[in-house]
Amino acid sequence: MLKRAGLVFSIVPSSVDETSVVESSPTRRVKRLSEAKAADVARQYPKSWVLGADTIVVIGEKILGKPEDPDHARRMLQRLSGRGHNVLTGYCLINRRLDRFFSEVTETEVEFKRLTEEEIEWYIQTGEPFDKAGGYAIQGRGAFLVRRVSGSVTNVIGLPLCEVIETLKECFLSDVIQDSR
Known about the structure:
Elements: H1 26-44, E1 50-59, E2 62-64, H2 70-80, E3 84-95, E4 100-112, H3 117-126, E5 146-150, H4 153-157, H5 161-179
Antiparallel strand pairs: 1-2, 1-3, 3-4, 4-5
């Protein structure tokens, strides 16, 4: 998404152990994870702007991670069937040299259609639910699962593009003004 938006960047995976971040609130958890990931990479690249992000799917207060196997994916999809849930993405921008830090969470409401057992089995067989928070990919075959989205669609894909680019613009504009003084 960032590439299609015309941004030039490098991907540097964080070494943060996601299980080490324990928070009672899903919003605080996703925010802390994005901050930890960004800080980890920013230590290696202190002169660069670093973006860290983390996306989770929440139904009620339960976080739905990535399915471990077909049975787990089936249970997730059955739980989401005919119901609404929230997708939360925490994102954090850091530039250590400029001592700049910004962190935010974007939340999107998603409603699934009522799924038949045949639809669930077909979708699991595609292999798409695996390695996806909540067990689905709205940008892929899983688009047929979604009846309604209220909020950022790109957030559901994995990064709230509008919000991130607005934040980048604010950060860079602020830096240009600061550097010209």
